[in-house]
């Protein structure tokens, strides 16, 4: 009986010992926890563009000086203003073609260039490509405390090479440098090692459970998890989904490890790359040109910034948009007197033309009495009113007028006749039917409300009309017609 009892006790001890060992082993092999709230964002999710040259010819390919390239339709989209290059399909012998994309045909088979190729691009051997780089922000919450000397690893899909051209299967590392990977808290990436397709950060302080960690790839400085100095380096993959607007999904593995490389937490996150959306709107060319009258008794320099004419309208008659009355003309003034007969109009231009505008004037002829044929003297080249003779003309005043043409002493403030020979004098001229006079001109735009130049009076012009008579002119009504033409430059 005692032997039997002893055997039962021994068996019980052995079974209990086996159970304890199995339980111990089971605890040692428990699965790593998943990271909480793991996510990733890209500064741009646009796929890179890359397609082989498909031009014909002998030899087949695109000759130096080509302004467009035929490519294979592999869903790559080249956008206006993209900086493109050509590269040998094997990745060796990059050709010297730095190209600017103008547009791409709707069937994606022709790429039009803003410049021309500088070297021959071989069909099937050379590839046209636009690498799209992005800064990656990867964020997660730690479930299991990471000790000092622990690690955070990011593993991208595929082989993730270091070349400068895009890949169809992964994010090309493009010679990513260790200084371009930072984290918040900073202790998460105290030191960085890169071996494509994996980035490894080593900690230099404990990161407690519940801490939100942000790793920024393609960033050299951060504050509070936001990148302050971007150096986007990783190249987005090319389009693999042939359906336009359907995203390609890529998965990135995240692991946290202790100092002995035992996995603590892990997770897989997905990010998508999808075509950019081209937004188009058309702005039509615009021009407004307004002629308006000026009341009697107005000092012309008060009308617009940039017009310095000190004369005052004084015919007693308010001009209109279509009619100027100089009243009853006076006898010629002396050189030190003030001209008596002055009227005026304003000529205002607004336009969205990028290269400004011009205003020119032509006329039906001299200010003439059609009944007698007599005409008041005028000159095509503007000049000061002469003393003791009849004279007629217009004077242009404003920011956009040519002071050398219209004013003596090359200053803006002028009178038709003033006391003191050193004072600036307004010059007056009159166009003919075939010889126009330039009233105003500006070579930059747009011009109008909200434009940068409006405070200086751009587009705002004053034209004054003045005349005198002498005893050589018989009485009657003297008239002419002037036509102003405003021309925008787009």
Salient structural properties:
single chain; 490 residues; Immunoglobulin-like; 3 domains; 6-stranded mixed sheet; 6-stranded antiparallel sheet; 2 helices; disordered N terminus
Secondary structure: elements and pairs:
Layout: H1 2-28, E1 33-34, E2 36-42, E3 49-52, E4 61-62, E5 68-70, E6 83-88, E7 98-104, E8 110-113, E9 121-122, E10 126-130, E11 136-141, E12 151-155, E13 181-184, E14 191-195, E15 198-202, E16 212-217, E17 219-223, E18 226-230, E19 248-257, E20 263-273, E21 287-293, E22 342-351, E23 357-363, E24 391-398, H2 403-406, E25 437-442, E26 460-468, E27 482-488
Parallel strand pairs: 1-20
Antiparallel strand pairs: 2-11, 3-10, 4-9, 5-8, 6-7, 6-10, 7-8, 11-16, 12-15, 12-19, 13-16, 14-15, 17-18, 19-20, 21-22, 22-26, 23-25, 23-27, 24-26
Describe this entry's structure for a reader.
The structure is a single chain. The chain is built from 2 helices and 27 strands. It has helices at about 1-30, 405; strands at about 35, 35-40, 50, 60, 70, 85-90, 100-105, 110-115, 120, 125-130, 135-140, 150-155, 180-185, 190-195, 200, 210-215, 220-225, 225-230, 250-255, 265-275, 285-295, 340-350, 355-365, 390-400, 435-440, 460-470, 480-490. It has a 6-stranded mixed sheet with strand order 1-20-19-12-15-14, with no helix packed on it. A hairpin with a 2-residue loop joins strand 17 (about 220-225) and strand 18.
